[in-house]
UniProtKB/TrEMBL annotation:
<dbReference type="InterPro" id="IPR000397">
    <property type="entry name" value="Heat_shock_Hsp33"/>
</dbReference>
<keyword id="KW-0143">Chaperone</keyword>
<keyword id="KW-0676">Redox-active center</keyword>
<protein>
    <submittedName>
        <fullName>Heat shock protein Hsp33</fullName>
    </submittedName>
</protein>
<keyword id="KW-1015">Disulfide bond</keyword>
<dbReference type="Pfam" id="PF01430">
    <property type="entry name" value="HSP33"/>
</dbReference>
<dbReference type="InterPro" id="IPR016153">
    <property type="entry name" value="Heat_shock_Hsp33_N"/>
</dbReference>
<keyword id="KW-0963">Cytoplasm</keyword>
<keyword id="KW-0346">Stress response</keyword>
<keyword id="KW-0862">Zinc</keyword>
<dbReference type="InterPro" id="IPR016154">
    <property type="entry name" value="Heat_shock_Hsp33_C"/>
</dbReference>
């Protein structure tokens, strides 16, 4: 019998098993005329590498997986400290659990679980697939630190709508979020364009009128940038003949856009055999006996689908909690 391990904790001694790396997957940029920054995300072959590990999931769910990977990549690579950004969605729809996370170094992983209660055709929107539940971002800076978590209800038709609502309600942080994922002849494609309006850095203005004028101009630039961002389509984003810098300049060139150094993304999972064994110690002898087939208990990591086998005799009673 094979069980799926979905524990998302970050033990002190876990180390990611990193696979494919896409060197220039994240292209950061900013606008000179307003406190606005953005990231253009192109997962390239990384989308196929990660999503193909979940071939039992329907394409509609893998599409959301691709969008989620691009979303957390955009947010995690903007962190100014070491840590992991996790997106967790739990609902009463066909997708009962949806998890995506990314480290500040760009190491990505994804998993989703389907509810056994739902049968028949799947809904065609993210809201329909998730149902009612919650949307949560968690920042984990590692051992001996306190996690920061923000939670909102699932509001909006698309995953981008839900994320935008989260940052508006939970963080009071205006964002313009555009997510893309689709299957193609070359495999899965996924990417994103995210704009953030940053808090003001302060003004040298010596009177309220000048300050108000600066704020109005910044608001106008922000609204214009959001309008331009909304014109991006999947064919442009996934066009291999268009570099990220070229695409950003096409979209925002009239707004004095500046590109920063690009950053990599990779597949990275933190599972290991000792961690899996520790998980099994939570079960009683009777439960472990039921799990074993021919004296072997098999577990699959829900993120990377790696299989771990354990000899039942190597899990003595005194090693686990009743």
């Amino acid at each position: 019998m094979t069980f799926v391990m979905t524990d998302t904790s970050s033990p002190a001694h876990s180390s990611p098993s990193t696979g494919l790396t896409v060197a220039h997957a994240v292209q950061p940029f900013y606008l000179d005329r307003a406190p606005v920054r953005g990231r253009l995300i192109r997962l390239g072959p990384l989308a196929q590498d990660i999503l193909s590990r979940h071939d039992t999931l329907p394409d509609a769910v893998k599409t959301l997986g691709g969008e989620g990977l691009a979303l957390v990549a955009a947010m995690a690579t903007a962190l100014k400290f070491s840590g992991t950004l996790s997106l967790q969605i739990k609902g009463d729809g066909p997708i009962s659990l949806f998890l995506v996370d990314c480290t500040d170094k760009g190491e990505l992983r994804f998993m989703a679980q389907m509810s056994e209660k739902h049968t028949g055709p799947l809904p065609d929107t993210a809201k329909g697939l998730f149902g009612d539940g919650y949307f949560a971002f968690t920042i984990d800076q590692g051992p001996n630190t306190e996690r920061h978590q923000g939670i909102t209800s699932l509001e909006g038709k698309t995953l981008a709508d839900m994320a935008t609502r989260y940052f508006t309600d939970s963080e009071q942080h205006p964002c313009s979020i555009h997510l893309f994922a689709r299957p193609s002849e070359q495999g899965w494609q996924a990417g994103a364009l995210v704009l953030e309006r940053l808090a003001g850095e302060g003004s040298d203005a010596h009177n309220d009128n000048v300050a108000a004028q600066a704020t109005a101009e910044e608001k106008d630039v922000w609204e214009t940038a959001c309008t331009f961002a909304g014109t991006l389509n999947a064919d442009e984003l996934f066009n291999p003949e268009l570099s990220a810098v070229t695409l950003i300049n096409r979209l925002f060139g009239t707004l004095s856009v500046q590109c920063a150094a690009s950053r990599p993304l990779s597949f990275g999972c933190r599972c290991d055999k000792e961690r899996m064994r520790s998980f099994l110690t939570r079960f009683s002898d009777e439960e472990l006996d039921e799990m074993a087939q021919n004296g072997v208990i098999s577990m699959n990591c829900g993120f990377c689908n790696t299989r771990f086998d354990f000899n039942r005799d190597d899990l003595p009673k005194e090693d686990h909690h009743a």
